[in-house]
From TrEMBL:
Keywords: Transferase. It comes from Streptomyces fulvorobeus. This is Gamma-glutamylcyclotransferase. The keyword Transferase applies. The keyword Transferase applies. Pfam families: GGACT. The lineage of its organism: Bacteria, Bacillati, Actinomycetota, Actinomycetes, Kitasatosporales. Gene3D superfamilies: Gamma-glutamyl cyclotransferase-like. InterPro entries: AIG2-like_dom (IPR009288), GGCT-like (IPR013024), GGCT-like_sf (IPR036568). Residues 8-135 form the Gamma-glutamylcyclotransferase AIG2-like domain. GO terms for molecular function: transferase activity.
Length: 145
């Protein structure tokens, strides 16, 4: 089965300046631009956020892989996000195609949403991040002298 070559919408530790950006995205992207994911809510996780379907908006970035980096990046992000395959019962996140807003345009992108079991747990006992913006929730990285 061929995977659609969509850009990725990231909203947590993969954002520029966050801990996984350098490990996974730096040098592997052609473009990164601010974007919004409508129809979603953001919840706190253990050091990283989860987006779930809902009546809200999640702030993040649309990441376009560099030429020749798509396959590697897709595999690395699926592994990071605990995505074992579409609908797999062991998934931490499901990779799904969703429309995201970039400036005044809408485009399709891969988004890692919390898998079904995680979503149920978040909805019953999770902590929502007001405004759907991870960067307002985490303290900035420490500065080095």
């Amino acid at each position: 089965m061929t995977v659609r070559r969509l850009p990725f919408f990231v909203y947590g530790t993969l954002l520029p300046g966050q801990r996984n950006h350098g490990r996974f995205l730096l040098g592997r992207t052609a473009r990164e631009e601010p974007a919004l994911l409508p129809g979603a809510l953001l919840y706190e996780g253990p050091g990283y956020p989860y987006a779930v379907e809902g009546h809200g908006t999640v702030h993040g970035a649309l990441v376009t892989p560099a030429p020749g980096a798509y396959g590697e990046l897709l595999g690395r992000l699926d592994q990071l996000e605990g995505c074992l395959g579409t609908g797999h019962p062991g998934n931490l996140y499901d990779r799904v195609a969703r429309d995201v807003q970039v400036e005044e345009a809408t485009t399709a992108a891969w988004v890692y949403l919390a898998a079904a079991a995680v979503t149920r747990s978040l909805r019953t006992g999770g902590t929502r991040i007001p405004g759907g913006h991870w960067l307002t929730r985490v303290p900035p990285a420490p500065r080095t002298p």
